[in-house]
Design the sequence.
């Protein structure tokens, strides 16, 4: 197992290098505004623009820029400085990360709490009104685009702009250490927005898995043994059905930690997603590189964790 | 240049075609009505300068400002962006300013008077400007000491330092003696006979220009004894690592350190009272900031569609950047007292390549000019609330605007009909040598427009049609806005025949600030060029030169009006509109907007009700 | 009943004849309502099993053989199922028993093992764990006691090194070991009746023999009744005392194992017998498969349900549905066929001599069939 993990981690690093290279190349290939021009201001003279280019290291040939950049990241863990604000990218990322983590963790808890029981009950009471009602509402939520749901939820329940003003409106997010109560209440709507779609997906997924599993032979055996039905469902049925769901969960968490752009923008939560979109608008390449690598790293780590967890959950996988 | 306007992100993302013309019941203008008349809207004091009450507010409170766009620079010497100005003018004191309710009359800020020939401030026929500054203005902590003329000199000199990256010094201050080769070091033409006097010696009679340019934030004093340390960095760290303030407010700072304290990139900007500010250091009642608010708290980021309703339905709030179209619509119909429209907001025009291709022919240009349907473009953008048809290149509120014909514009046949006139156009086609009245040449006209949003696409189509109507074969290229600039319109080598998205915003009240960079041949540069049309007409160049060095302000305005008329006469480009800029604030905010800065909210005059 | 480390020496191998059967099934009918129609899975079967005896139920897939056993344990109960008849176990009717009472019978008094032990055991739990679960579901004992019992059970079924094996996962066992483990699990609570549904189908031939031997041995030691369900007559030849042949949800022939092999009466049984390769058949003699496919249980053939596939079918057989009736001069032997016993006898002798069914058909004479008693049945036929 240890060798397996080490191998995966090494491969993960290779992947990060590739992602970094690809981002760099994409930025060069796709037309974006020259960041030197952005910084220089209008009708600035050529000397000024050139000066800024030199400052930003844009005058070196591309492969030199690339090599300097890769060296910086992988040897010194220096992600460079924002073209726009000269702040160090790592400081910006660390500044924004807690918000994204808060958003992710709360959303995950909420959608697991909402989705898993609904999935189980729908499977057990398959065909009944309860099952049909939950699957229909799940389908409805899955179909809602995040930006639409976010705005809807704001205009229904947000303070200042909403119809029934219960929850804090956009921009009210504060850090956990600053004001725990406000931190919590300001995240309720964003958590709901993120969790609603996911809960729907997970409940459908679990329901499908569970229905399939309940038709397996070992369920019949358990019943034939005289095991109580509740135990059959939970220890035999759900234990099998939940394994793929948990692996999907791990990967979703990894993805979400890279920043939920739309939700963060609508609710004005200064996380990685909002940082990313602001940087893209300013052609601020170092930040975009940094956030992309961060997102890639989360996904890679999540995948490794999930694979290891799967081996723990399913004994058949361990010796392959 | 459009890129630096507040309007960048919000106004071009037009998903909702606001048929505001349909809401014109309370508006006499209507959508197609007397197109050359002043729009009659229920404007809240903004347009009628005299009517804006800038004093009489209540002291106290915190204003919460929302902006989906971020600031660029907090260095008074480097800032060149409308949003930055809102903070800059509340925290720094340039020599002169425009009061919130004036777009053309300077008032003294740090200075004790606006120099003129009558008060002896301008001498040598316009080659020498003598400015006296207030004797008891202090820098904010930790500097704390009194501002002297040396500090103003240091401020102007550093504008030429590449590390400061100032974008306008070389255009406006190039005629100061010794400035030509300045790189941030001492400039001989700026002298300080005593602690409260600073004299500018000019190589030419450029006083009117320089005076206007001194109203930009760059003339705000910096601590001369400390600034060298920060300007030695590339880029300068003044404004981030350290800043000293002279205005009624300051960016919250930790012993002068701004970044990470009062300003968090992409997140927030907080302004607090400057403890060393003295309200009694203003010479003119025309400009005497009352500084009612105790604090200004700006939140950055967020969706414009959400910010709008927040501001409109909430309290103590204002939006700093441009509200989205749906917000403007909502405000205008449901919260009319919370939205203000400003006309002194810049213009848009369609540029034609004057140096290459078919449009080197003046009559062909006139034909195209005559045929462009300017009304349609305004309708696409959202109707009468977004602008009025452009008829020349000086904008309302700028000196010379009225002299050049006001809203009706110079009286030329191709300028008369703002919805386009095919007959007149055909006349000029014929004059250009196309007997049928339609273009029969082989050149395919390249039009490069932006594809950011439904509005832009619609405008491109409309413009395209106005060309094909005249028989031109066109090749319409629609790309991302930033690509449109950086790859086509701003690069003379790649300059297309037509750029429908030209536009300009003035730096101060003078024709030079509006007309030089877009239309003078000397302003053409190989990249980042703003003279999209590559206009290099000797007559125009000479006229601009003459106008610039006209020392008498009244004559100066008239001279620039003449330049403007000449531009129309030569049809160097085709005006599209005079922009109207909306700004919103909550109902309990007594917002005072700077009509000379696109109506941006002025923190030093705004109060809570 | 307490759990002891040594299995009890229960009732002897040959209980008194005439005693109350352990399991008595009377006219069991099980049908399922589906979107395609009503599936008549079991259409009126009756049989009984005594303690210490083995009943073999033989038939193709779709004959209803598994359904009747699953019904014994109540595993076919559902809103869409219609179950009629009586199933008396130890005097109690399993069909009317409450769910909870039935649960206490399952895995306790009646146990069942299934065809594919790899899919029938939960892949995520250790084998020992699953065995313990069988014990703990019915006995209030400590985990350690249950574990000890599990180890004993593994030893009982002949799994080597049970102390280690008890912590292994199902996929770590070989096929034969797995089936032994399954059997161990079924025996956890010393059931009176063990139902084995195709216990050897998924195993190699050599392993098959071992498992069958194991079952026989366990039956002798523990005195339990066994029902073996299979499609393979060869499997039950050794181990069954009685054999019931099922077709299309009915029992078509029922006799002692000896009688079935010595004088089979039903054409279907003949088909089954002739399709088994036998060492004592002449070399070169072809196997004779039964032509056609099992019938739909929703729309069953009219008259005798076997008639579409019977080589000896007559016109009347297409209209008349035969009942299960005793074979003359052969006590304990029942068959449901319209052919005359003598005719049947001669056909079988001909088949045994090596004739093909087509040839044997000639022996079916018009006068040989007896349509008389069929009239009342004609109304039943559908």
Sequence:
């Amino acid at each position: 197992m240890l060798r397996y993990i080490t191998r995966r981690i090494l491969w993960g690093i290779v992947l990060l290098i590739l992602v970094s290279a690809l981002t760099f190349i994409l930025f060069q290939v796709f037309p974006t505004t020259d960041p030197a021009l952005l910084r220089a201001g209008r009708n600035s003279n050529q000397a000024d623009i050139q000066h800024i280019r030199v400052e930003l290291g844009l005058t070196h040939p591309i492969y030199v820029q690339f090599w300097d950049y890769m060296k910086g990241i992988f040897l010194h863990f220096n992600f460079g400085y924002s073209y726009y604000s000269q702040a160090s990218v790592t400081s910006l990322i660390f500044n924004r990360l807690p918000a994204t983590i808060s958003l992710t963790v709360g959303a995950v808890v909420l959608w697991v709490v909402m989705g898993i029981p609904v999935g189980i009950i729908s499977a057990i009471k398959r065909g009944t009104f309860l099952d049909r009602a939950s699957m229909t509402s799940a389908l409805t939520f899955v179909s809602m685009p995040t930006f639409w749901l976010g705005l809807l939820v704001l205009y229904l329940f947000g303070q200042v702009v909403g119809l029934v003003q219960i929850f804090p409106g956009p921009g009210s997010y504060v850090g956990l250490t600053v004001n725990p109560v406000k931190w919590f209440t300001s995240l309720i709507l964003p958590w709901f927005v993120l969790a609603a779609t996911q809960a729907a997906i997970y409940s459908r997924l679990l329901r499908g898995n569970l229905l399939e599993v309940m038709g397996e032979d070992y369920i019949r055996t358990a019943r034939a043994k005289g095991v109580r039905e509740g135990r059959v469902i939970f220890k035999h049925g759900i234990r099998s059905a939940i394994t793929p769901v948990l692996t999907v969960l791990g990967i979703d968490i990894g993805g979400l930690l890279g920043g939920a752009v739309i939700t963060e923008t609508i609710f004005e939560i200064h996380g990685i997603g909002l940082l990313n979109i602001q940087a893209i608008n300013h052609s601020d390449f170092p930040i975009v590189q940094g956030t992309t690598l961060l997102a890639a790293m989360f996904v890679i780590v999540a995948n490794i964790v999930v694979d290891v967890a799967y081996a723990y959950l399913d004994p058949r996988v361990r010796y392959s | 240049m459009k890129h630096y306007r507040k309007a960048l992100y919000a106004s071009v993302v037009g998903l909702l075609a606001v048929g505001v013309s349909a809401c014109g019941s309370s508006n006499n203008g209507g959508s197609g009505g007397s197109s050359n008349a002043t729009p009659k809207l229920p404007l809240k004091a903004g347009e009628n300068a005299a009517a804006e009450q800038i004093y009489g507010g209540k002291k106290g409170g915190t204003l919460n400002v929302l902006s989906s766009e971020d600031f660029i620079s907090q260095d008074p010497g480097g800032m060149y962006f409308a949003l930055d100005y809102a903070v800059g003018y509340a925290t720094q004191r340039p020599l002169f300013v425009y009061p919130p309710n004036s777009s053309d009359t300077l008032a003294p800020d740090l200075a004790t008077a606006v120099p003129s020939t009558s008060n002896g401030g301008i001498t040598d026929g316009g080659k020498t400007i003598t400015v006296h500054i207030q004797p008891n203005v202090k820098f904010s902590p930790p500097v704390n000491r009194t501002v002297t003329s040396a500090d103003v000199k240091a401020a102007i000199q550093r504008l030429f330092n590449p590390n400061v990256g100032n974008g306008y010094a070389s255009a406006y201050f190039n005629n100061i003696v010794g400035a030509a080769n300045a790189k941030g070091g001492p400039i001989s033409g700026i002298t300080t006979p005593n602690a409260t006097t600073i004299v500018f010696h000019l190589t030419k009679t450029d006083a009117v220009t320089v005076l206007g340019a001194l109203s930009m934030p760059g003339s705000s004093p910096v601590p001369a004894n400390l600034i060298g340390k920060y300007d030695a960095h590339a880029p300068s760290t003044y404004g981030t690592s350290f800043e000293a303030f002279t205005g009624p407010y300051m960016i919250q700072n930790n012993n002068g350190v701004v970044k990470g304290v009062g300003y968090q990139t992409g997140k927030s900007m907080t302004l607090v009272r400057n403890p060393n500010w003295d309200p009694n250091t203003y010479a003119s009642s025309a400009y005497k900031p009352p500084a009612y608010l105790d604090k200004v708290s700006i939140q950055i980021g967020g969706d414009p569609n959400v910010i709008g309703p927040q501001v409109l339905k909430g309290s103590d709030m204002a939006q700093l950047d441009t509200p989205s179209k749906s917000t403007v619509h909502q405000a205008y119909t449901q919260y009319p007292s919370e939205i203000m429209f400003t006309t002194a907001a810049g213009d848009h025009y369609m540029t034609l390549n004057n140096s290459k291709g078919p449009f080197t022919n003046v009559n062909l240009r006139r034909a195209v000019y005559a045929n462009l349907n300017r009304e349609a473009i305004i309708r696409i953008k959202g109707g009468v609330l977004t602008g009025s048809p452009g008829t020349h290149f000086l904008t309302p509120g700028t000196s010379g605007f009225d002299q050049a014909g006001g809203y009706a514009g110079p009286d030329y046949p191709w300028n008369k009909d703002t919805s386009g006139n095919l007959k007149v156009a055909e006349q000029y086609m014929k004059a250009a040598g196309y007997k049928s009245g339609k273009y029969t040449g082989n050149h395919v006209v390249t039009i490069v427009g932006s594809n950011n949003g439904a509005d832009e696409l619609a405008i491109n189509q409309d413009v395209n049609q106005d060309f094909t109507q005249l028989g031109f074969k066109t090749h319409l290229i629609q790309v991302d806005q930033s690509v449109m600039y950086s790859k086509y319109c701003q690069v003379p080598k790649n300059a297309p025949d037509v750029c429908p998205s030209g536009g300009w915003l003035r730096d101060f009240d003078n024709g030079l600030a509006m007309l030089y960079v877009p239309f003078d041949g000397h302003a053409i540069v190989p990249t980042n060029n703003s003279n999209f049309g590559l206009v290099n007409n000797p007559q125009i160049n000479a006229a601009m030169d003459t106008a610039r060095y006209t020392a008498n302000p009244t004559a100066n305005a008239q001279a620039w009006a003449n330049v403007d008329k000449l531009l129309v006469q030569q049809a160097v480009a085709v005006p599209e509109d005079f922009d109207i800029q909306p700004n919103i604030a909550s109902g309990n905010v007594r917002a005072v907007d700077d009509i000379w800065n696109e109506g941006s909210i002025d923190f030093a005059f705004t109060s809570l009700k | 009943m307490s759990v002891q480390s040594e299995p009890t020496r229960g009732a002897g191998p040959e209980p008194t004849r005439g005693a109350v059967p352990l399991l008595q099934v009377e006219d069991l009918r099980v049908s399922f309502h589906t979107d395609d129609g009503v599936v008549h899975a079991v259409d009126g079967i009756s049989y009984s099993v005594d303690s210490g005896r083995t009943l073999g139920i033989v038939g193709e897939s779709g004959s209803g053989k598994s359904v009747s056993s699953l019904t014994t344990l109540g595993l076919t109960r559902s809103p869409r199922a219609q179950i009629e008849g009586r199933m008396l176990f130890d005097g109690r009717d399993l069909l009317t028993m409450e769910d909870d009472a039935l649960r206490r019978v399952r895995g306790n008094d009646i146990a069942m093992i299934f065809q594919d032990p790899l899919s029938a055991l939960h892949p995520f739990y250790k084998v020992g764990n699953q065995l313990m679960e069988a014990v703990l579901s019915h006995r209030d004992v400590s985990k350690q006691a249950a574990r000890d019992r599990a180890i004993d059970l593994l030893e009982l079924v002949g799994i080597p090194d049970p102390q280690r094996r008890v912590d292994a996962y199902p996929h770590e066992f070989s096929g034969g070991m797995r089936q032994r483990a399954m059997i161990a699990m079924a025996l956890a609570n010393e059931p009176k009746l063990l139902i084995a549904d195709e216990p050897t189908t998924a195993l190699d031939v050599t392993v098959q023999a071992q498992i069958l031997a194991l079952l026989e041995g366990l039956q002798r030691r523990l005195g339990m009744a066994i029902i073996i369900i299979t499609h393979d007559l060869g499997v039950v030849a050794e181990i069954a005392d009685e054999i019931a042949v099922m077709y299309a949800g009915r029992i078509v022939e029922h006799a002692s194992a000896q009688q079935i092999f010595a004088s089979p009466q039903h054409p279907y049984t003949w088909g089954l017998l002739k399709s088994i390769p036998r060492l004592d058949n002449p070399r070169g003699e072809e196997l004779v498969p039964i032509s056609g496919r099992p019938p739909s249980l929703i729309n069953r053939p009219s008259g005798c349900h076997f008639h579409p596939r019977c080589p000896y079918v007559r016109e009347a057989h297409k209209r008349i549905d035969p009942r299960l009736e005793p074979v003359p001069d052969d006590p304990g032997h029942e068959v449901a066929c319209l052919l005359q016993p003598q005719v049947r006898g001669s056909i079988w002798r001909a088949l045994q001599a090596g004739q093909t069914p087509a040839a044997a058909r000639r022996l079916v004479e018009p006068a040989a069939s007896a349509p008389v008693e069929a009239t009342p049945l004609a109304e039943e036929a559908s």
Chains C and B do not touch (no CB pair under 8 Å). DSSP finds 14 helices and twelve strands in chain C. Residues 286-381 of chain C form one domain.
